[in-house]
Each structure stands twice: as structure tokens, then as C-alpha cells.
Write a structure and sequence with these properties.
Elements lengths: L14 H11 L4 H7 L4 H9 L7 H14 L4 H8 L29 E5 L1 H5 L6 H9 L3 E9 L21 E2 L4 E6 L7 E2 H10 L4 H11 L9 E9 L3
Antiparallel strand pairs: 1-6, 2-4, 2-5, 2-6, 3-4
Length: 237
């Protein structure tokens, strides 16, 4: 009989990955963690696959302490707490390294994503308006995810009436809020041009436009308060 092959041992997680695991156990996603350290979500994945993240251990430690001892769950607040412990990379001459940024709002395939939290919500999620306007100009489809207190929703969690055809589970947070998604590529989503008109009718207030749609379709209480909002776009097939 041929000798049995032993599977190689699983790679040991570094400190950044272990901290990320603890934050995920507390209800945060990799995308949330990336926002806390002001980096792309792909970097958080590289904590596990490429052993990166050593420079962010102090910031992640401080954020985790804020969650565990202070009960803080707001991403913007955690970002402010972590920011002083994050240092920019330097070049061999000691100068600050340039951080690459996206040159376009939406990729050639039509994929675009924008997410805002408490502070931006209060000002109407203005940074999402260009994303919606560009999606409308390109004839794209659109979907969105909202987060608010559980008591703000009229339909029960996971109801097909609330978000028909969406396989993504409702995300329940430790602060008694829920994230629910509306529209997807599988269901066709929404016409970005129609949504852009809604935003224009709301004087550019994206939060108000989303809130009005949710009220009109009997999904939330009229006085419900959106705490987080994400917009996603894609090109229809």
C-alpha cells in the first residue's frame, strides 16, 4: 500500500489575523475592519493568506479594546480611535509612500461600491451621489444595503416579502441593529437612472431617497433612522 500522505499543518495566524478573528466574532465583517484601519478589504484577507498586517496590530488592538470594554460598535468612532496608531509607509529615503487610490468611480465592468456610516448619513450620504449619478449615466443596475435598529423594520428578519430573492442572510449586530439588502444581480436590482431621479427629487439627499423608498414600500417605520448605507452597481447582462 502506498504510504499515507499527511496534510501539511495549517499556517499559524499572525497577530493581525487573530485580532481580525476576534473583531469578526464580535459581529464585524472584513469590510468593517478594513474601514477601521482605512485600507482596502483585500488587505485584511492578506492577514490570513500572506501574513501581512503587522503594522496595524496596535490599531486593531485599540479598536478591539474599545469594542470589548467600551461597547463601541460604530465604525466611524472605531476608525477615529484607531487612526492615531496607524502610520504611513515610508520610502527608502524616509519620505511618505504614496497610497494608491482608485482612478475611476466605477470599473469598466460596471462594478462600483460606496458605503457611509453615521457622520455621512447625517449629511445625506453626499459622497454616494456621484456613484449613483455615474451609474445612471452608464445605464447600470443598482442595489443597496441599509442598517438600522431592529425595531425600525416592519417585516420580520429574513422575510421574502422584505427582500425577495435575496439569498444573503440578514446580518444582526450586537448593538441591536440589522443589515438588510435590497436588490441583487440575481433579481435584477433597480434602475440606477430611476434611483438617481429619486435622489435629485430629495435635493441630493441619498439617505432621504432610500428612506422614502423603504417607507413607500412598507418596509420600515416612518421615523426609523438609517445608521449605515451601502450602494452597489453592476452592468446588466
Amino acid at each position: 500500500m502506498p504510504p499515507s500522505r499527511r496534510r501539511p499543518p495549517a499556517p499559524q495566524l499572525n497577530d493581525a489575523a487573530r485580532l481580525a478573528d476576534q473583531l469578526q466574532a464580535a459581529g464585524f465583517t472584513k469590510r468593517d475592519i478594513a474601514r477601521v484601519i482605512a485600507r482596502d478589504p483585500s488587505l485584511v484577507s492578506q492577514f490570513y493568506t500572506r501574513g501581512k498586517g503587522a503594522a496595524f496590530v496596535p490599531a486593531l488592538t485599540r479598536a478591539l479594546q474599545a469594542v470589548q470594554t467600551g461597547g463601541i460598535t460604530d465604525i466611524d468612532e472605531l476608525t477615529r480611535i484607531a487612526a492615531p496608531l496607524i502610520t504611513r509607509r515610508t520610502t527608502h529615503t524616509g519620505a511618505r509612500a504614496r497610497v494608491r487610490s482608485k482612478a475611476v468611480l466605477i470599473t469598466p465592468t460596471g462594478t462600483g461600491t460606496g458605503r457611509v456610516a453615521a457622520q455621512a448619513i447625517a449629511s445625506g450620504s453626499a459622497r454616494l451621489r456621484p456613484l449613483i449619478a455615474e451609474a445612471a449615466r452608464q445605464g447600470l443596475r443598482l442595489a443597496f444595503t441599509v442598517r438600522m435598529a431592529k425595531t425600525g423594520y416592519l417585516l420580520p428578519s429574513g422575510s421574502r416579502t422584505d427582500s425577495a430573492g435575496i439569498r444573503r442572510d440578514v446580518i444582526q449586530r450586537t448593538d441591536h441593529t440589522e443589515e438588510r439588502s435590497y436588490g441583487s444581480a440575481s433579481t435584477g436590482g433597480f434602475d440606477a437612472a430611476d434611483f438617481a431621479r429619486r435622489v435629485d427629487a430629495a435635493a441630493g439627499d441619498v439617505t432621504a431617497a432610500v428612506h422614502q423608498w423603504l417607507v413607500e414600500t412598507s418596509r420600515i417605520q416612518a421615523d426609523a433612522h438609517i445608521t449605515h448605507l451601502e450602494i452597489r452597481t453592476w452592468r446588466p447582462r
